[in-house]
Amino acid sequence: MDLLLVSKGKRPRTGAVRECEACGKQFYCQPCQIKRRRYCSYSCKVQGQLKKRLLKCEQCGVEYEKNQKSTARFCTWHCYYQSRKPNKACEICGGPVALLRYRYCSQSCFHKRAKKGNEKSCEQCGRSMWVEPHQVGKRFCSVACKNEGIKLKGPGSKYKRPDGYIAVYYPKHPDATAQGFMLEHRLVAEQKYGRRILKTEQVHHLNHIRDDNRPENLEVISPSDHQRISSARGKSLRQQMKAEIEEYRRRYGALD
Q: Which of 139, 183, 191, 141 is nearest to 164 (CA)?
């Protein structure tokens, strides 16, 4: 009988004898280690894992070395990303599609498929762009073209910002932004009061309409007063809204 299977006592061992894959030495395995143990010691395990084998890249076909347990399919990340790029074109413009399950390369092509909006040329670069139904006043294809288009008209050209204020291209003003724009209501307030409006002062619209920059509608106040007026107006609007909801409930019942 093999000495590795004979126990020191009367009861024989129930494990198995295996051969180390690194050094070739025989060693005894416990019953619970028969399926997973491959090396006789930790040092042999490290040496076995450091052994390389040749693999072939599925994308470019180049052979590369990896360890014994590696399941890599590609030699580099570049080959991996190249393999994920589908050989598929957009159904509208013919451009490359990001994923295989997509049919269109962008949201603009998707809306063209749905026939929402129309095509329009940029006023600055002349490139064709897609205008959605809610973008009827769109004139430029990008922010860069928008800034350049406004600058070409010279000082005094205006445009309405997304927050509702009117901006004027006035690069010589000391308070102008890096792009050369200045808020129109501050310029009108300076002409009204005959002095420069400080950065610690704010211009308040009396009728709360941000694009109404008439001199009689503007007032220079401190930031604290401006905050107090805005808070009071917001509170009154909320109370008015609550009163309207209560009146609706009184007339037509509870809201679903």
A: 183
Instruction: Report whether pLDDT(160) > 60.
Output: yes
Q: What is the chain's mean pLDDT, rounded? A: 83
Using the Cα atoms of residue 9, residue 12, residue 13 and residue 18 in order, give the sign of their dihedral.
positive
CA distance 106 to 98: 9
- Domain range for 159 is 153-219
Q: Is 249 domain-assigned?
A: yes
Cα distance between residue 181 and residue 156, in whole Å:
9
Does 40 share its domain with 30? yes
Residue 241, domain member (yes or no): yes
CA distance 167 to 186: 10
Rounded Cα gap, residues 168 and 187, in angstroms: 9
Phi, psi (5° rounding) for residue 35?
Answer: -80, -30
- Do 190 and 158 reside in the same domain of the chain? yes
Residue pair 149/159 in contact (Cβ under 8 Å)? The answer is no
Shared-domain flag, residues 214 and 234: no
Instruction: Report the share of the chain in percent with pLDDT over 70.
Output: 89
Residue 67's beta-bridge partner residues?
52
Q: Which two tokens stand for residue 79?
A: 């080959």
